[in-house]
Specification:
By secondary structure, the chain is an alpha/beta fold. The chain is built from seven helices and eight strands. Helix 5 links the parallel strand 6 and strand 7. It comes from Janibacter indicus.
């Protein structure tokens, strides 16, 4: 594993590169959610298993996390940092890059995939609707952005995720449901473990 530090206007970010076995045919550029880091079970499992299948996995610690803060900034600052991070490490990645992440990180990936030239999106624990909120607070419009740009999108959702079950995500996608692969993994928003998530990612991207 190689650790890179890249500057942003909000402070340095760190990118942990897990190199592919052999010649990589792509990079999964993934970041964490608003309440955790790159040690999350699903991200760790992907970084452990996908390199043997030919994927370079790059786990991104956002600048607020590197700075030791416990609360993520608002989406505009997350997006601004992601733009700088992608530009800063692009030369270290494979030609083909899939954006992704868990929860808030998945939202960032969805918002910026088309703009920054990603070839797809991997959304882990997409936070469809905050618990206790109504459908007017749905983030489905963000998940639809890469779909409408013609990019392949995979969602891996906990079976009992309080932000939205796999069926909730499919229902919210409406007539675009056929354009998104939605996989179920055991657990809630944080998953029971990472193995099932890595299995689903392997099945779709390899």
């Amino acid at each position: 594993m190689v650790e890179l530090e890249t500057p942003t206007a909000q402070g340095p970010a760190r990118v942990h590169l897990h190199e592919a076995t052999g010649t990589p045919f792509g990079t999964l550029l993934l970041t964490h959610g608003a309440g955790g880091g790159i040690g999350a079970k699903d991200l760790s499992a992907i970084a452990t298993r996908l390199p043997d299948a030919g994927w370079q996995v790059a786990l991104v610690e956002m600048p607020w996390r590197v700075a030791g803060k416990k609360v993520a900034p608002m989406p505009p600052k997350l997006d601004a940092a992601w733009r700088e991070i992608v530009a800063g490490v692009r030369d270290s990645l494979a030609e083909r890059v899939v954006f992704g992440g868990r929860s808030a990180g998945a939202r960032v990936a969805c918002r910026l995939a088309a703009e920054l030239g990603a070839e797809g999106v991997l959304a882990l624990s997409f936070p469809l609707v905050p618990p206790g909120k109504g459908p007017d607070k749905s983030r489905i419009h963000e998940l639809l952005l890469p779909v409408e740009a013609g990019l392949p999108v995979q969602v891996v959702q906990g079976a009992k995720d309080p932000f939205g079950s796999p069926d909730d995500v499919r229902a919210a996608l409406g007539d675009r449901a056929a354009d998104v692969r939605v996989d179920e993994a055991p657990g809630t928003h944080s998953f029971t473990g990472g193995g099932a998530v890595a299995d689903a990612v392997l099945a779709h991207w390899t």
